[in-house]
Amino acid sequence: MYKHTAEACIPVPHPERVAKKLCARSADYCRSIDDMGADKLLDFGDARALLRLTDDGLRLQVDAQDTITFYGIRTLLLGILCAVAKFSGEHAEWHSAGSEPVGSM
Fold first, then answer.
1. CA-to-CA distance for 101 and 88, rounded, in angstroms?
2. What is the rounded CA–CA span in Å between residue 48 and residue 52?
3. What is this structure's pTM?
4. Ramachandran region of residue 41, left (φ > 0), alpha (ψ -120 to 50) or beta?
């Protein structure tokens, strides 16, 4: 179980293309990226990020053991999104994901 967890719905056009670009640009920082159909799981070791495609964008969930890694991964993902999509970052509202397991998103 991860100590820090949050999720955000990010409105972006063409979420499938954006997710593919986000995964490609974050590959150097991840141990692995698992393709689970419409979902992508980025494994950072002591943290992970789940990308889920929605009709109007991406749903991101970040889980981490420590605070610095947690905010670092969130910052990394938002920075990449700003670079690859028409997204300024101002519409990203992170909410506590509570104890909801990643697979049940």
1. 29
2. 13
3. 0.84
4. beta
